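Archive entry: two folds, one per protein. Generate the first.
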Amino acid sequence: AGDAATLHRRHLGYGFQGLGYHFVIGNGNGMGDGMLHIGYRWDRQLPGAHAAGPDAEFHNQHSIAICLVGNGKRRPFTERQINELVTLVRQLQKELGIPADRVHLYRDIVDDASGPGRFFPATQVEDQLIAQPR
């Protein structure tokens, strides 16, 4: 539960410079279901503060971080969240020329992470990505 402001405060508590994600998508519990928040890191084109581990600096510098509010280890994300995520990622792919094989889940970049959780519909999302955007 929560919203971008909640995450911002939590990240400040971790010693970050504020919200670590570029985008946040709400689940209806603190933020509208499927509502997209565009974070200050995107507006100012700043690196994220979302990755951990030995390659964290690289991923924070060279990745776009998208957070779905919720816990995919405990329950599915909402249909509206997933739809907004796909719409956002496809738009970013088109605008920035990002091929599907460069779109990663958190667990793909952090060795001991399970995020976004077992309830995240990875195959459904991956099937909707643009293989080679122009």
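Generate the second and append.
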Amino acid sequence: MRVVLFGPPGAGKGTQAGRLQEAFGIPQLSTGDMLRQAVAEGSELGRKADSIMKSGQLVPDTVMVDMIAERIGKSDCGKGFILDGFPRTRAQAEALDLMLNSKNLRLDKVLEIKVDEQAIVERITGRFACATCGASYHDQFNAPKVKDTCDFCGGHSFLRRPDDNADTIRARLRAYHEQTEPVLPYYADKGILLQVNGLRPIDQVTQDIRIHLLNGNS
């Protein structure tokens, strides 16, 4: 099963992608991770991307598509993959389709996790983590059982990401709405776009996704 995962920052894509990996035995492919791995391995594409990034430029779509093509040729993608972070534009979506067609492959489903903007702001601004063991918490939804004490290691020091603030989050959401959401009609026209309500409990979202992917219902 070859799936593209969409959703604004804070929609829970990472959590759900991890569960999809386990359920279907297919890897999550993050373009950011692929770039870092290619650079670290010193592959031809990695060296090319590294040179471009060091010059302060964006990695061209052609390089990104070539990198995805190389990655999906590895054995762990034999049963499919979950693509996260690409495509972000219609041109990228078309380039991805052309590459897959050249391999006699196609995307099976494109999944959008829909979440209300205010809910996302509340989700992200409330996040914090244990400074000792990294356990994740939330002011409203997942506070430590004992105030100021980590449930796992007993630590008393916690951290919040400096960019987990309302202004930064709203800017990231605007970028998603302006740059990435316009790609969705392209897949809707192909009849492969599925949507799930990301505001439901995490386990219910997982169940909804599995039902939609298996049945193909939007």
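Annotation attached to the second fold: The mean pLDDT is 91. The beta strands are 2-6, 28-30, 81-84, 109-114, 127-130, 136-138, 158-159, 193-197.
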